[in-house]
Amino acid sequence: MRVKTGVLIVVLGLSVLLAPLVAEAQLERQIPRIGALCPTVCSGPLYETFLRGLQELGYVDGQNIVMEWRAAEGRYGRLAELASELVQRGVDLIVAPSQPAIRAAKQATTTIPIVMVDVGDPVRAGFVSSLARPGGNITGVTVLAIELTQKLLELLTAAVPGMTRVAVLGTPAALQYHGSALENAVRSLRLELQPLPVQVPAEFGRAFDTARSEGAGAVLVLPLHTFAAHQRQLAELALESRLPAIFWQKSCAELGGLIAYGASLSYMGQRVAALTGKILRGARPDDLPVERAMQFELVINLQTAQALGLTIPPLVLFQADEVIR
């Protein structure tokens, strides 16, 4: 009888000691885990406004949500491994900026909701069935690349009056993808198109040399995420080649590019937070239409214009959201 009583006391004692640990483990399982699959680094305006947007919705990292950050640091081959890690960690949702990250997340799971960001054409890429009815486990915010590229060409011709020949830098696949839209745009703008196909960053220098030697008046750098990690190099090569260049991210102009025009990353972060909040509250990704970016930024670097001996027309400067002097 005494033995049984002793065992009972030990069991009760262990129960009292373990109760807080069990409760903590149960609470941790109840707290949503959000994975972020970053192609380069998990920092910058997109991620800052994403976290701020979540806080405005009542979700604070370390309190009632847990963020799982995974950064490929420009090594896109690691994205599949990192996506699998997030799935193994039991995340409730994955935020995937850029087409390579979205594809890696999609291959890693067909059930965990994925909120994609900044992809050129999610329907053509096979991520969703349509913008209005995504289907599957993916929704998000998109910038339609074809429309963006046409706008980039229009701004470039307005900023560089008298230009007749424009070089377009991109991978062979991207040049083919944008081919018909580029041809239509240069025809309406009365320009001559000079494709500059590159496979790897080591070919950037040769491409700019070709553009200059063959008489290009300016360069359009296609909006490609594989170029994002090399913005400074591209901006410096354009300046060394004495060629006005237009890019698609604000940071490109801040690093010395002449012009940048693209979707506001702060706006994109806010919309991703809103979609994430809806999913955390029970919405299904296939019931949330893919949103199109509605806020864009035009940034002009007048220091670069001066170095190139270029005068930007007042009308173009008037349209700029930011002028770097």
Order of helices and strands: HEHEHEHEEHEHHEHEHEHEHEEHHE
Main sheet record: 7 strands, mixed
Show unreliable segments.
21-27
Specify the structural class.
alpha/beta
> Treating each run of at least 4 consecutive H or I residues as one helix, how many helices?
13
Q: What does the radius of gyration come to? A: 25 Å
Strand content: 15-25%
Task: Please give the alpha-carbon distance between the first and last residues.
Answer: 89 Å
How many domains, in number, for the residues?
2
Strand segment tally = 13
Which fold name is given in CATH as the topology of the largest domain?
Rossmann fold
- The backbone outline, from C-alpha atoms, is elongated
Overall description:
With 325 residues, this protein is α/β, with parallel strands linked by helices. The chain has two domains: 32-143 and 265-294, Response regulator (Rossmann fold, 3-Layer(aba) Sandwich); 145-264 and 297-324, Response regulator (Rossmann fold). Helix content is 45%, strand content 19%. The protein has helices at residues 2-30, 45-56, 79-88, 99-108, 145-159, 172-177, 179-188, 204-213, 231-240, 250-254, 265-280, 302-307, 314-319, and strands at 33-38, 66-71, 93-97, 114-117, 138-142, 165-170, 192-197, 218-221, 245-247, 259-263, 291-292, 296-301, 322-324. The protein has a seven-stranded mixed beta sheet, sandwiched between helices. The protein has a six-stranded parallel beta sheet with strand order 2-1-3-4-5-11, sandwiched between helices. The N and C termini lie far apart (89 Å).
